[in-house]
Structures are given as structure tokens and as C-alpha cells.
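Backbone Fold Data
Goal — C-alpha cells
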Amino acid sequence: MEQTKKGFLSSFLDGLYFNNPVLTLFLGLTLAVLATTRFQTALMVGVLTLVILFLTVLIVSLCHSFLNKVGATILSAILSACFATVTMLLLVAYAPKLIDTENEKAIALLTLVPFISTTSLVLIKGQESLEHPLSDNLGDALGSGIGFLLALVLIAFVRELLATGAITFTAIDGTSSTWKAWSGWTLGILSQPFGGFFLVAIFSGIHLAILEAKKQKASVAKEAK
């Protein structure tokens, strides 16, 4: 398969901002809805997704000579499932209190990790890695992973704050600390799945409006010359 070269920096910025996985390409929406009920959950899921995405794209890129698109997708699914399984085992072994789903103050992180292995972000980026050289793929994976992480924590911060009036953090030993912004009115509906879809749509609309405004400004400047 013929590969096209964009450059590491261009690929990084493209994944980070211009083609942000959540806000522009709408990839990984399941995680964007499920993992953004709490800021800390979104932060941890975002970091794990970044690591799994980067490692998956790296390995698929190194094996590109032996793969077609179907093979790349299958290998991406297998690799991401393996990395997600290792992550779950490590969490169970070293941070059991952090993933205790019976503790209301803990983060139900264990239930979200399997979604990383099947998210469209990892599978599609793995398939697209056949079309570009290694440096471009790593730049795109890093940019897309960070862009995904930033989108999740932004949505989660606003969502948890409006839904509860506070941001809660849970330590590895299971103890919780809360930063309370206000008391009184809250928008509890934002803690429901609707809230995730609603805020993804809001931030996506803002992001796309900014991109469109920049395109129009660049077009006007080009015509003026």
C-alpha cells in the first residue's frame, strides 16, 4: 500500500486539534458518554486510552508490510484487548479500592477499561496507520490520544460540576476528597447518559465553529492578497 507523508508535527496537530477524535471525528463516543460523569474517571480513562492507542499504532505500523486493512483492524483489536486486560489485572492487583464498584465513593473504572479495546478510535487509527509512515503514525497517535484525553476531561469537569456542584477525587486507598464549588442548585440530569451526549454536542459545536471561523478568515486573507 502506497503511503503518504505529512510529517510528525503536522500529524500531531491534526490529531490533537484539527481532527480531534471526539469533537471533530466523533470517535470513541461511548467512552465520551460513560467516562465523563466524573472528572477523575475521565482523566484516568483518557490516559489509559492514550497509552493503549500509542502502543497499538506503534506495533501495527511496524507490521504494516504484512497487513492489509482487515488484518490491521483485527491486529488492533487483539492488541488493544491485550493491553486493556493487562491494565485491568494491574488495577485489581495494585488499586483494588480505586475500582471497587460497590463503594459509592470509588470509581467504577474496571467497568470502563474493556470499552477502550473496542472503541472506534483505536480500531480506526490502527487501520489508518497502514497509509502513513511510522513517524506520522506516532505523531497522529500521540496527538489524537492527547486530544481525546483533553476532550474527556473538559466535558467531565463541566458535567460533574454542574451535576453535583463539586469535584470529587478518590485516592488509591479508597478515601475521597471533595472540592465543593457551590451548594444548592444542580443539574442532576447531566449525570445521566443524556448529559454526556448533550455536552459532547455543545463542545463539538463550539470547536467546529472555531475551525470554520478560522477557515473563513484564512480564505478572506488569501483573497485580499
Strands lie at 166-170, 176-180. The chain is about 65% helix and 5% strand.
